[in-house]
Write a structure and sequence with these properties.
Distance between the termini: 25 Å
Bound molecules: zinc ion
Order of helices and strands: EEEHHH
Number of strands: 3
Strand order of the largest sheet: 1-2-3
Radius of gyration: 11 Å
Structural class: alpha+beta
Number of helices: 3
Strand content: 15-25%
Number of domains: 1
């Protein structure tokens, strides 16, 4: 199961293996399945993680950390 984080009206999904956050639950589940199996990240998946998005996504993630 991916971890669900509620932030304001939105929900974010966190891969429990690599701790990246996604706005898309399916993407988070994909990431977690990959991380568990391979014990490493798939850059094609993590590219859509909030941590790896520029602009809005990055500032959104900053909010989470505060
Ligand atoms: Zn992951």
């Amino acid at each position: 199961m991916v971890r669900v984080i509620k932030q304001n009206e939105k929900e974010l999904y966190q891969c429990e293996e690599c701790s990246f956050h996604y706005e898309d639950k399916k993407q988070a589940e994909k990431c977690q399945a990959w991380c568990k199996e391979h014990h490493s990240c798939n850059i094609e998946i993590t590219a859509s993680a909030i941590e790896n998005k520029k602009g809005r996504g990055a500032s959104y993630y900053d909010l989470l950390l505060k």
